[in-house]
Design a protein that fits this description.
The chain has a single domain, classed as Gcn5-related N-acetyltransferase (GNAT) (Aminopeptidase), CATH 3.40.630.30. Helices cover 28% and strands 29% of the residues. The protein has four helices and seven strands.
Length: 168
């Protein structure tokens, strides 16, 4: 079950963040190795009403943040977005606890967006060394679109992907 995140989900979400950081570190990606995501990420997502969690048998086992706009997505290099408008949801800090990976939970988050938001697409970015994430995105119908730089910093290169909502 997917629902809005609550303050009472803090410990579960922070555990998910730490589990995901360890997983990403295991394949030598520098993504999420600088402290992000953390308690400040959680608090900002709660405050801005953009945190969602996935409950399995009453336990929070996954989380994601949905943004209706992402400034870093304005400039795309080495490609272009599939859609030409700003009617999208950007997914950030999507993470699933180790023992629940591979069960299709990320796909359920994507389906939830298309079922509950009237958007043309979902956009997402990841580090080029985050091969498990790239495989998951491709498996779930996302198309590679190009490159962005977080905060316009060339040291923070990210690959961007988009999935079109064909149901609207």
């Amino acid at each position: 079950m997917i629902r809005k995140g609550l303050l009472t989900d803090k410990e579960a979400v922070l555990t998910i963040y730490e589990d995901a950081k360890a997983f990403i570190k295991s394949y030598n990606s520098p993504q999420w190795q600088d402290g992000y995501p953390n308690i400040d990420t959680f608090n900002a997502d709660i405050e801005n009403d953009r945190l969602y969690v996935y409950e399995y048998n009453g336990r929070v086992v996954a989380c994601a943040s949905f943004y209706d706009y992402e400034k870093d997505y304005e400039k795309i290099y080495e490609g272009k977005w599939l859609t030409d408008n700003n009617n999208y949801i950007a997914v950030h800090t999507i993470a699933v606890l180790k023992e629940y990976r591979g069960l299709g939970i990320s796909k359920e988050f994507f389906n939830y967006i298309f079922e509950n938001y009237n958007v043309n697409s979902i956009r997402i970015d990841t580090h080029e060394l985050n091969i498990p994430m790239i495989k998951m995105l491709t498996k779930n119908g996302f198309e590679y679109c190009g490159v962005i730089y977080l905060n316009d910093n060339k040291e923070h290169k990210r690959l961007v992907f988009e999935k079109i909502n064909f149901c609207i």
